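Input sequence (357 aa), recorded before submission:
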Amino acid sequence: MSGFDAVVLAGGAARRLGGADKPAVTVGGRALLDRVLDACRGAGRTVVVGGRRPTGRPVHWAREQPPGGGPVAALAAGLRLVEADTVVVLGGDLPFLGDSTVPALLAALTADGASPAEARADGQAEARADAQADAPAHADTGAPADAGTGALVNARTDAPAHAGTGAPADAAASAGAGAPAAAEGVLMVDGDGRDQPLTAVYRTEPLRREIALLAAEHGSLPGLPLRLLTDELALRRIEAGPLAAFDCDTWEDIAAARSRIRDHGRVLDEWIAAVKAELGIELDVDTGLLLDLARDAAHGVARPAAPLTTFLVGYAAAQAAAGPRGEAAVAEAARTAAALARRWAEEDHPTPEAGPA
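Predicted structure, token format:
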């Protein structure tokens, strides 16, 4: 995945958190900001707008003037460092952005002219209703959109024209042929149908154009709500799914996020992701394969053999990973060690034909 930059807005005052350093608040043992940076790791350049701090991934830093000037001013500051034609824009307080969130946004942006399609964005298997009660919307959102089916929607139809231009806002209508307008961005829509402009992707030049117009019309950008910006762009919407749009505005939100991460159905995946991020590991491994290996070693040899065996498999994989076959090396080493554990167990329980060991 390439060809896009990312801007992460992480400089809010966090008044509902009592002024706490929200990007540094941990969920699942990892800072909120680092969780967001993982979701946009495919970006060519990532710009964080906010106070400088250690991060798990290399980033460029920007700051709106004055600090705390609001999302439009912060976005304008971040865009000054963007080089790509496409920019993913994310809030710095989104703990549940999945690996498929950014790809789903990018795919929807390039689907101009295609018929509406189902677009689930966070890859979670949980029911949508399970998370609706927990997922607050971002501030400064636009009007509700019809996202009940998760279909792509062109939102420009009823958008007003710029003051003084007299130009129709609906590009499709002005074309006169019913062809869909080229999307200038894609927003996620939460379970209540509300726009999430900080879980979105935009074409860079239209975004800069509208920010310049807002600056000219209002004299400055600080304090302006994001809806003034998004109302003037030709946007599509995709359904956010149960968790991708969940943001952490209050300590209650933080507590809910921490509790959800520890749910039995996801705690192992979350723990593995946290350990990989902590160790700087990009390798994807077959978790089930390693768990089976640990079980075989524990049952067939002795309980302490489980962690020791998986460590040795990891060491063998690391030696083999100098080439391009790291994932295959893990699987091969795990199968070899599992076979050894089974043979070990068979020696304690030989078949009648095999006789004593």
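Checked by second reader. Residues 283-348 form one domain.
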